[in-house]
Amino acid sequence: MRLKTFHEKTMKQVMEAVRNEMGADAIIVQIEENEGGVRVTAAIEAIASSRVPEALQQTYETPVSFEASYPLTPTKEYDSADIAAVINHHGLPFETAEHLKTALNAIEKSSLSSAFADALDTTIRFNPLTDVATRPIMLVGPPGVGKTITTAKLTADALLHERSVHIITTDTIKAGGLQQLDHFAQLMKQTVSTADTPEELAAIVRARTTPADLTLIDTSGTNPFDMEELKLLLGMIQAIDAEPVLVLPAGLDPLDAQEIAGIFARLGCRRFIATKLDAARRYAGLVMAARPGYLAMAGISRSPYVAEGLEPATPVNFAKLLTSLPRRGDGATKQEPLS
């Protein structure tokens, strides 16, 4: 009898490898599943001749196939009711909800969050930020969405990775805006440059003799439905060829969020950072803003504290947040995954 061990990421892959190499008559001796994948030991009778004698053909009984005893698809820990609960809780519009359901029905995963991760990967776009950029990063968006805190978080992350940062703000009118950013910068032993006009902004960027690994520009709040404010912001963007990145809070009406994403996309935005997820429980607006044709999700902020930085926007991270529905327990609201 010849033994061989096969190791693959999934049960389906390992069984295909067994059949491809040892044939349909292989006998499964042992199965081990762990975080690294699936390990299967299989055996087959060694036959000296490639031609099986006729007598043996008449009496030989093929072993019970693996599929008869061990299903290739993982055992689901969720059902259609769990899927509906997530979609209904977040209030996804009909078309997007149906798209997700179709994707989820075609996916075989054991956990609900894993299934949603795969479905989200086909439904919305992700494009995480890094702490090194060839163009200045300009954080834009409506008033009060968390641009200043996001600037501080990106600064802290870059410094943690030993990257140099140049911080600029054009938010010089709002009471306390500059003071807040300057306070964070001082704690990190950084300085903040200020610019009131596109010309001043361009001069500040040109004046730096040694380019920083990351240039961050915090901007004042822009009303997406005010054409004059949009024109002023566009002038700032064009003055230094910055990459505008929208900062968008969770909890917005889904169609409002999608419309805002579309407006800022026309200004040159290609990505957005989702903020204030700790202060909202419904994230349909973020899903709609990340639909194809709008913006890609670049980062996730779940805390108002600078020390608790941005999380990379990935299907897995966002799926965990979507499927962790709030539940009542011990007199307080908790967020627990459905599976």
Verbal overview:
The protein has 339 residues and is an alpha/beta fold. It has two domains: 2-69, no CATH class; 137-313, Rossmann fold. The protein has 13 helices and 13 strands. Strand 2 and strand 3 (37-44) form a beta hairpin.
What is the structure about, briefly put?
The chain is an alpha/beta fold and 339 residues long. It contains 13 helices and 13 strands.
What's the CATH architecture of the largest domain? Answer: 3-Layer(aba) Sandwich
CATH topology of the largest domain: Rossmann fold
Return Rg in Å: 27 Å
Give the total of domains: 2
Instruction: Summarize the main sheet.
Output: 8 strands, mixed
Strand order of the largest sheet: 6-5-7-4-8-9-10-11
What is the CATH homology-level superfamily of the largest domain? P-loop containing nucleotide triphosphate hydrolases
Helix and strand run: EHEEHHHHHEHEHEHEHEHEHEEHEE
What layout of secondary structure does this protein have?
Blueprint (H helix, E strand, L loop, with lengths): L1 E7 L2 H12 L4 E8 L2 E8 L9 H6 L6 H4 L10 H11 L3 H12 L6 H12 L13 E4 L6 H14 L4 E5 L7 H11 L4 E3 L3 H10 L6 E5 L8 H14 L2 E7 L4 H13 L4 E5 L8 H6 L6 E5 L10 E2 L2 H9 E6 L2 E6 L2
Parallel strand pairs: 4-7, 4-8, 5-6, 5-7, 8-9, 9-10
Antiparallel strand pairs: 1-3, 2-3, 10-11, 12-13
Helix pairs in contact: 5-6, 6-13, 7-8, 9-10
